[in-house]
Amino acid sequence: QVQLVESGGGLVQPGGSLRLSCAASGSIFMINAMGWYRQAPGKQRELVARIFRIGSTTYADSVKGRFAISRDDAKNTVYLQMNSLKPEDTAVYYCYAAMRSSVYDLYHDYWGQGTQVTVSS
């Protein structure tokens, strides 16, 4: 059983910062991509940022220069540092990871339960 647990969401004023964390636990052999998606009310889920095992990263154009993704493979944890937050960043943020549970397993996608980020004055 593999689980992703997010933390760090909350209410912040425009221009403020938040740091999201997501820890993977359970039967984990290897993690390739880890990342964050978000979904605002009435909108589709969209990729925010993604980081691969080799360290390469991808960001949505809307967050480039404001958000930074990082990972600690020793802790099976991915982070999202969000700076200069805007009201349009308000959404439920979901952690994502592509993981193998054993050497015999293929990669499967796993999702966290989501954490609310609200940017409002």
What is the number of strand segments? 11
Biggest β-sheet strands, sense, barrel: 7 strands, mixed
β-sheet strand percentage = over 45%
Helix share, percent: under 10%
Q: Helix/strand/pairing class, anyone?
A: mainly beta
Unreliably modeled segments = none
Describe this structure in words.
- The protein is mainly β.
- It has strands at residues 2-7, 10-12, 18-26, 30-39, 46-51, 57-59, 67-72, 77-82, 91-100, 108-111, 115-119.
- The radius of gyration is 14 Å and the shape is elongated.
- The relative contact order is 0.32.
Sum up the structure in keywords.
single chain, 121 residues, mainly beta, 7-stranded mixed sheet, 4-stranded antiparallel sheet, 11 strands, elongated
Per-chain topology:
Elements: E1 2-7, E2 10-12, E3 18-26, E4 30-39, E5 46-51, E6 57-59, E7 67-72, E8 77-82, E9 91-100, E10 108-111, E11 115-119
Parallel strand pairs: 2-11
Antiparallel strand pairs: 1-3, 3-8, 4-5, 4-9, 5-6, 7-8, 9-10, 9-11
In summary, what is this structure?
0% of the residues lie in helices and 56% in strands.
